[in-house]
Structures are given as C-alpha cells and as structure tokens.
Amino acid sequence: MTDITASSFVRQDLVPERPAPVKTTGLIGFLRTRLFNSPTNILLTVLGLLLLWYTIIPALKFLLVDAVWSGKDRNACLAETVGHQVGACWPYIQAKLTQLIYGFYPEAERWRVNLTFILAVVLLLPLLIPRLPAKGVNASLFFFAFPVVAFFLLRGGGLAGFGVSWAASLLQLFDDSIVNAGTVLVNLSQNSVIAGPLLWGIGKLIVLIGGLIGWVIFPLAWLREQLQMSNQPLWFDFLLTTVIVSLILFFLGGGLRTGHRALLASLATFAGIAAVIKLMGLDRGGLQIVDTRLWGGLLVTLVVSVTGIVTSMPIGIALALGRRSTIPLIRIFSIAFIEFWRGVPLITVLFFATYMLPLFLPGNFNVDGLVRALIGIALFAGAYQAEVVRGGLAAIPRGQGEAASALGLSWWKTTSLIVMPQALRHVIPGLVNSFIALFKDTSLVSIVALFDLLGSLHATFSDPTWSTPTTAFTGFAFAGMIYFVFCFGMSRYSLFVENRLNAHRRN
C-alpha cells in the first residue's frame, strides 16, 4: 500500500524549464509597462517623442548651441559676423538686465530696491519653512511692518505727522465730502422744477449732517493744528498716538488684571516703529522721492502681484462669508460686489482706476497712479477669491458648525478655528491657480502706462544698438523663463502644503 501511494505522487521526470518572467523594474520595465504596453500607448509615445523632437531640440539649439554669449552691440549677434545661423543674443540681455529689473529707477537709488528684495526674502523664507519657530512675529513683520518699510524705501519721502494727524485729516476729508455732496444737491435743485424742493431739502439735510460732524471732530482738528505748530510735530504726535492706543489696548485686554501683556506688546511695537522712523530719517524728510512713473521691470511685476495676492485673500474671505451671511443687507452687498467685479474685464478695471477714479475724488485729494492700479487689481482678484473660498465653505459638513455650537463656541471662534481652516485646505489648488493667473495678468498694467517686466522688455526693442532678427525672441524667452520660475515655484510649494495639510488622506 505504501509503495503504490509513493509511486502515485512522486514525479519520475524533471520539470521542463519555464520562460523568464517579464521584467517590470528598471528602465526596460518602465518602457514596457508605461510606454509600450498597448497599441494606443505606443502611438501616444511616438507622437510625444516627435513633439519633443520638434520643440525641445530647436529650443535648446536656439538658447544654447547657436546662442551668442558675448558682444558689445548688434554686430555680435548678426549671422554675417558670426558666420552661421545665430540663436539667442544673450549680450542684449546682459546690456538691458538692469532696465528689465528696475525700469527707469534712478541708478544711484537702486540699492533701495535691492534692500527691499533682500528684506522680502529674509522675512518670507521663515514663513515658508514649517519647522522654524516664531511664525506669529514673522507674519506680523512680513504682512504689516514690511509693506510700510518697503513703501518708504521704494518711493522715499518722510512723515509730517502720525496717528492723530492722520485720523483728523481723514475725518476732515470725509466731512468735506459730505458737505460737498449736499451742496451739489442744493445746486441741482435750482435746475429742476418738479424735484427741486425734494433735492433742496435732502441737500440741506446732508449739509447739516456735515456741519454736525465738523463740530464733533473739531477738537481733533484743533489738536492736529497745535501739534503742527510745535517744534517736533511728528514726535509729539507719535507720543500722543502711543499713549492713546496703548491705553485702549490696556483696558480692552483686561485692565489691571490681564491688560499688561497688551500694554507691553503695544509699547514694544511703537518702540520698533520709532526705531524705524529714526533709522530711515522719516522725521527729517526721509529718502529722495522716486516717482512711481520711473518704476518698471520686475520691480513693478512683483509689487503689483504680491500686493494683489496678499490683499485679495482677506477681501475674498470676507466676501465669501458675507455671501453666506443670514443678514440680508450683508449678503446682497457681497453678491452684488462679486458679480459686478467678475462681470468686467481686468483691462476695464485698470482703465477705470487710472482715468475715471480721480474724477470721483475731491479736488484736493490725489491718489498715485500705481496705487490706483493696485486698488483695482486687489478688488478684482478679491471677487474671484471669494468664489473659490465659498466653494471650500460649501464642502464643510454642517455637523462641524453644529458640534462647535454644542461646545459653546461663538460664531467667530467656530469660523476662525474650525470651519475656515478646513475650507482653505480644500481649496489650496484653486487659490494657487488664482495667484498664478494674477501674477501673469500683471502684464496688463502696461496698458495704463505702467512698465512691468514685459513693458520694460518692449521698451528695450526700440534701442537700435541691439536691433537684430533674434532680439525679440531672446527677450521673450528670458521673460518667459522668469515667469516660469515664479509660477512653477508657487505650484510646487502649493503641492507641498497640500500634502502636508492632507496627511490623513494619503494612501
């Protein structure tokens, strides 16, 4: 029985050799499994290789192989001089590099632009590296202190007053606008027979309200005049502003019980402001004023894009929350604002901000051309960001807010600590996509006589010293590489942030 069982289950001959397994690793495996694993993929691979051959190879040949790397004028980039077909004319970029970066900024003052770039990098890099500490202080310096310092570095000028004088001037301007509006209505009533009495009554009422406001702000205006008549108007105004703001923060922070932290923070902040004023000489007229019409190149591109990106985010968040508000007035205003700004092209916004906005301002109030463009771009981008943020808010389940309400959290804490962080995490790709689009759309400011990177590039084409057949292609290639570096950097960093914040969703 044992012999029969053994002979039934024991092989008497060798197993034949099997073919080697198909290689699925390494270069051969990648080609077999990814590029040539089906007739469709084979066709797409061949078409992709042909596309690379007819695009990448000529581009590399133009930029590197046939390029001219040294020369003093256009003769160095002519085929007759070189003896072969000429590619990129890099001596032209070397000669015009300062104009592409600074525009027509005075050469003796360009150190201020360089210092602004250095400060921006020094403050921005710690914010982008998650492991570094003191993010709150760093963010405050970058988003609040740096814009003021950059303004006085780039534009120049000094300070004639501080908080009290500024508040009095703004309130006085507001009061004058109300009185002027009432006066206009009174004058219009003389030309209308039917609506004349109504316009006259409304105009007189508005003028009366303006007069009452004038009496209310009269002590502040009188205090401003007394400060201006002193021998050190800026520092007296600064001291008075420090005392008023510090006392307000002290009592709002809890008074004698817990208000000392707010008081110390306020005093430290004003001490830093005083150090900056003294260091930059803002009490003595400051640096030489450089008109924004002389700004240009990469400087204008970065100023417009960074300002638009930073200011559009809080505007977009506020409008998104307002559109979801249960208060009808706030909801209707937010919807009207968003739909209006999304319904007009950016070119129209820039034209309106540059040429039409001064017509609606009082005669003694003037806004710089670059500032007007920045305001228009910020409002335009904020309307688009609002819809992106609203999409993230709509993705948050109602249970999140209901759970926060059950724990006794207020609406502000629920929104800032629970709902908004999750919503922003969901819409990181959409936000960064808007940022990249805004960075590239800054080239439209050249329409309103602001020379950004592309505007300065176009200005260099008129120089006959570098007029060659390849000058324009070289300039656009250089500008394209700069745009690609910034846009690709934002894209890759957004992926890093997205993966870091969505660690619980990784496979």
Structure, explained:
- This protein has 507 residues and is mainly alpha-helical.
- The chain has 21 helices and 2 strands.
- It has helices at residues 2-9, 26-35, 39-65, 79-82, 90-102, 110-128, 135-154, 163-189, 196-216, 218-228, 233-252, 260-280, 298-323, 328-342, 346-356, 369-394, 398-406, 411-426, 428-441, 453-460, 471-501; strands at 296-297, 451-452.
- It has a two-stranded parallel ribbon with strand order 1-2.
- The longest helix is centred in the last third of the chain and has 31 residues, at 471-501.
- The protein is globular.
- The protein starts with a helix and ends in a 6-residue tail after the last helix.
- The mean pLDDT is 86.
Q: How far apart lie the N and C ends?
A: 56 Å
Largest sheet, in brief, is: 2 strands, parallel
Radius of gyration: 32 Å
Query: How much helical structure, as a percent, in the residues?
Result: over 70%
Query: What would the average pLDDT be, to the nearest integer?
Result: 86
* Strand arrangement across the biggest beta sheet: 1-2
Show the helix and strand layout.
Blueprint: H1 2-9, H2 26-35, H3 39-65, H4 79-82, H5 90-102, H6 110-128, H7 135-154, H8 163-189, H9 196-216, H10 218-228, H11 233-252, H12 260-280, E1 296-297, H13 298-323, H14 328-342, H15 346-356, H16 369-394, H17 398-406, H18 411-426, H19 428-441, E2 451-452, H20 453-460, H21 471-501
Parallel strand pairs: 1-2
Helix pairs in contact: 5-20, 6-7, 8-9, 8-10, 11-12, 13-14, 13-16, 13-19, 14-16, 15-16, 16-18, 16-19, 17-18, 19-21
